[in-house]
């Protein structure tokens, strides 16, 4: 037996508390009327009451006539496997409900939003009828309702949603491949796609630092008319949102239907959600190698939303795709950096191998490269080219008499004196071994080479004697011939220097 309410609660208060959009229409009895125009006219003259949820869902203007706005709501049919029917081609389901005792529609779009519409006539007499219409967002799950034939529609719609989501996942998988460029743009495109598909107001990605003490909003998509907050949500410290950090680190999920209902243990989070006008929020962790790197989140701003298990499963799938893309991109960047550093290290090692550590002069391999370059240039431009080799007389005996530091100082001094005699463009002095040096002389014939080699011998002769033994050099010079390469030049110059030493040293051959 139905009992009246014992508390003083008005019907309006009850309607406003419902999470379902409710429209109550008191209108003329239209059971015998088939003309759509007459029905619409009756609706426009009817007494209409709506709750707050209906005002929001239908975007009604409280300052304008409600009956006219409801009559003009933009409905269309989302056929399961056929084309969409435009609003201009169908009768408004609300107008149609005015002459039916009961309706149940789960194939409708209000604008672009999938909705379920039900209606029932609460009173019916010869003159006036009260029709109660309810609207709610159509969830992406199987609908079992009263075992009516309309369950076929619901099942087919759910299959269509499943197919569409699979297509979306396939598309995102392709777009989030790590080898593609512009990952940030592709992540934001993915956020837009999943945000529109799940009909949320805001979707976003946050990334944690290595120690999970800070997080930043790196990517964001917002629906039309929704405020962006990405610029404000940078480098957020753990102590500012301790409850949220703890939830993400411990369970990897934050799921709230009503953020205002958070207790004092999450007062910082409650204040932040209020600041951003977030009524409902769903966040799931993103992991790489089982380590939390960030999270993907959905916000509802215009209304509250009770998140379904399908919502959670779908956001996890997309979160995994984005996490994989970010992790792969980081690995590629790290690999590229390592390769760059390795190339730089190898280049530096090659330079070290081509440079004498004591004198800083090029070594024999680098000299050969330069000789071949000069030979090619001399061949093209038809100019002379000579090579001089200088060998320290009695070098091994001198090295044995000296300490390591004394020997190093002597070699550096000799290198400096030789170098002071060769400062022209293209002239390259190199250290061949412990006791020998060589220099290539572009644009120089054998006579010029001899003259300049003798100058070097005079410079070295001024060095202090070591244990009454003078410091002298023997020099071998050679002029390039067109049939000679770098090896030929070096061998002949070294042979000439050796012959000069055998003839007593301190001379040029």
Summarize the structure.
With 509 residues, the chain is an alpha+beta fold. The protein has helices spanning 11-17, 36-44, 52-57, 66-71, 93-97, 150-175, 183-198, 242-250, 267-275, 309-353, 364-381, 395-401, 404-420, 446-461, 486-502, and strands at 21-28, 47-50, 75-77, 102-110, 113-124, 128-137, 202-208, 214-222, 236-237, 253-256, 280-288, 291-300, 385-392, 428-431, 436-442, 473-479. The chain is 42% helix and 22% strand.
Q: What does this protein structure show overall?
A:
By secondary structure, this protein is an alpha+beta fold. The protein has three domains: 11-138, Beta-Lactamase, CATH 3.30.450.20; 160-332, Beta-Lactamase; 364-502, Alpha-Beta Plaits (2-Layer Sandwich). 42% of the residues lie in helices and 22% in strands. It is built from 15 helices and 16 strands. It has helices spanning 11-17, 36-44, 52-57, 66-71, 93-97, 150-175, 183-198, 242-250, 267-275, 309-353, 364-381, 395-401, 404-420, 446-461, 486-502; strands at 21-28, 47-50, 75-77, 102-110, 113-124, 128-137, 202-208, 214-222, 236-237, 253-256, 280-288, 291-300, 385-392, 428-431, 436-442, 473-479. Strands 2-1-6-5-4-3 form a six-stranded antiparallel β-sheet, with helices on both faces. A six-stranded antiparallel β-sheet has the order 9-8-7-12-11-10, with helices on both faces. β11 and β12 (291-300) form a beta hairpin. α6 packs antiparallel against α7, α6 packs parallel to α10 and α7 (183-198) runs antiparallel to α10 (309-353). The longest helix is centred in the middle third of the chain and has 45 residues, at 309-353. The protein is rod-shaped and about 140 Å long. It starts with 10 loop residues before the first helix and ends in a 7-residue tail after the last helix.
């Amino acid at each position: 037996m139905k009992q009246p309410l014992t508390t003083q609660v008005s019907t309006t208060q009850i309607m406003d508390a419902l999470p379902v959009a409710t429209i109550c229409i008191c209108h003329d009895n239209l059971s015998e009327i088939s003309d759509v125009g007459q029905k619409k006219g009756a609706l426009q003259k009817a007494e209409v009451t709506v709750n707050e949820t209906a005002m929001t869902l239908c975007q009604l203007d409280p300052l304008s006539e409600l009956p006219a706005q409801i009559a003009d709501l933009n409905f269309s049919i989302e056929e399961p496997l056929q084309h969409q029917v435009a609003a201009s081609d169908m009768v408004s389901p609300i107008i149609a409900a005015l002459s039916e005792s009961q309706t149940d529609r789960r194939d409708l779009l209000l604008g672009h939003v999938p909705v379920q519409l039900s209606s029932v006539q609460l009173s019916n007499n010869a003159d006036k009828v009260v029709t109660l219409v309810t609207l709610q967002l159509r969830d992406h799950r199987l609908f079992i309702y009263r075992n009516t034939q309309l369950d076929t529609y619901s099942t087919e719609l759910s299959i269509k949603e499943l197919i569409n989501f699979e297509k979306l996942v396939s598309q995102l998988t392709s777009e989030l491949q790590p080898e593609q460029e512009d990952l940030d743009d592709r992540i934001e495109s993915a956020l837009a796609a999943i945000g529109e598909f799940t009909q949320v107001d805001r979707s976003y990605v946050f990334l944690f630092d290595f120690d999970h003490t800070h997080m930043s909003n790196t990517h964001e998509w917002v629906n039309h008319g929704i405020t962006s907050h990405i610029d404000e949500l940078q480098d957020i410290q753990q102590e500012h949102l301790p409850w949220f950090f703890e939830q993400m680190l411990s369970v990897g999920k934050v799921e709230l239907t009503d953020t205002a209902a958070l207790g004092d243990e999450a007062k910082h989070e409650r204040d932040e959600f209020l600041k951003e006008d977030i009524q409902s929020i769903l966040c799931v962790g993103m992991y790489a190698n089982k380590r939390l790197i960030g999270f993907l989140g959905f916000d509802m701003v215009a209304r509250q939303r009770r998140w379904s298990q399908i919502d959670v499963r779908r956001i996890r799938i997309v979160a995994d795709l984005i996490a994989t893309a970010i992790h792969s991109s980081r690995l590629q960047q790290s690999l590229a950096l390592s390769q760059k550093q390795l190339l730089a290290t190898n280049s530096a090692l090659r330079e070290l191998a081509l440079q004498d550590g004591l004198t800083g002069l090029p070594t024999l391999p680098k000299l050969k490269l330069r000789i071949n370059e000069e030979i090619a240039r001399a061949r093209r431009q038809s100019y002379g080219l000579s090579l001089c080799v200088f060998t320290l007389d009695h070098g091994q005996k001198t090295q044995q008499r000296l300490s390591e530091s004394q020997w190093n100082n002597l070699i550096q001094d000799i290198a400096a004196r030789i170098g002071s005699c060769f400062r022209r463009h293209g002239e390259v002095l190199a250290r061949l071994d412990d006791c020998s040096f060589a220099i290539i002389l572009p644009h120089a014939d054998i006579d010029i080479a001899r003259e300049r080699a003798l100058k070097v011998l005079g410079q070295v002769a001024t060095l202090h004697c070591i244990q009454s033994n003078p410091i002298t050099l023997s020099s071998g010079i050679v002029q390039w011939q067109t049939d000679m390469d770098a090896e030929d030049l070096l061998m002949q110059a070294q042979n000439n220097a050796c012959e000069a030493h055998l003839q007593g040293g301190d001379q040029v051959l």
